[in-house]
Amino acid sequence: MKAREWGVLLVLSGAIFLEGIDVAMLNIALPSIRADLGLSTGSLQWVVSAYVLGYGGFMLLGGRAADLLGRRRVFLVALAVFLLFSGLGGLAQDGATLIAARFVTGLAAAFMTPAGLSIITTGFEEGPKRDRALMIYGAIGAGGFTLGMVIGGLLTSLDWRWVFFMPVGLSLVLLVAAAALIPRSPVPDRAGQRFDLLGGLTITAAVVLLVLGVERASHVALPWTAGTLGLGLALVAAFVAIERRTAAPLVRPGIFRSASLVRANVIGMLFMAGFFGFQFLVVLYLQELRGWSTVEASLAMLVIGLDVALAPTLTPKLVRRFGNAPVLLAGLVFAAVAFGWFLTAGNDTSYLGMLPSLVAMGLAFTLAYGPLTIIATNGIAEEEQGLAGGLLYTSFQFGAALGLAGVAAVNVAATASGTSEALLDGYRAALLVPLGAAVVAVAVGAFNRNEDKAAEEREPALAAA
Prior knowledge:
This protein has helices at 3-37, 41-69, 71-91, 95-123, 128-158, 162-181, 197-215, 222-245, 259-289, 294-300, 307-310, 314-322, 324-342, 351-377, 385-414, 420-446, 453-458. By secondary structure, the chain is mostly helical. It starts with a helix and ends in a 7-residue tail after the last helix.
């Protein structure tokens, strides 16, 4: 790759790293935020839910906006908004301001993320060059998720507001670099095209309701959850009907004829459900049951970040040798092993006893994230790359919400009292949720192997890229 191409790739990879650490850092800062702002449990939950709703709800809209309005323009504007409202979150003096800032930050990420991914998938020709770029992009993005807990713990030990101020500084650097490095491209020819406003509003409302129903499931009565999810599904049905009739659909129904795209989105949802649920439970186990400090718990999970080193170095070699789908499948198997191994953790398990589980989780990200991104976007027309990215990251976000809600609900239901044994029983029962998600992902991934033939045929040229 040329120097400018490397610069563009690093800027866009930095943006997905930024999004990953922003989510992960917040999770470990929540207790400190509650103590400082005096938030109730319900309000604290909305600090998380607001971001999830903005991000997951508007992702498809953001992906299509990148295709229609220009990917560079959408990326730069969204990154600037992300910067401003992340800073506002750090300055917040009350829960309402923080929740509003998190919603807009999530909305900005919903436009920034698919725009950035589509700049890569359209700026690098499909084949070895694009695959290599996506491997690096995926490795750095995965590093944001896995290292965010560590960085967040260290920053929270200083002051929780640094969890919001640090992304401001990184965003500013990325914004300046992006404006200088990302090449201007012609304004997309929208002759004969129009924005599917009705479809956009319908699917956004549907995803918001579905994510909200899942995210709040463990905090509200069953009828409220059922009603919210039912209304969300009804809007999905209405969206499908609209898309079949409109001349310029927001989501062309034919895109789902790509079996690899559909499988990649299902796997992405299950993988993130397992990871976020697992991460949540490990933090509770270490801090509430074992009495470890925030910094100690963060450093204990540092090993998961081994994907930062291995994903751009080991994974491309494995893909050249075996292809995307088998490497992805191996990553999913490692995730299942990680969750299953942690079931053996008890009240006095040493860190060395937990280490195989955490290493397996790092290997899961190493092997799964990059190939999953490639499979989800390969073979998609250039004018729909933003949409393909939006679909994938919607699946990621919905999976994260699903995993967190699932483990929280099971943990509460299975914890009979506040004794250490009861807490351990609750954690073990809740761990079955990530384990179940990983097992299903492995089953789906096993059917994905035949989709990789075209990529495998061109892999020998990857070494020369």
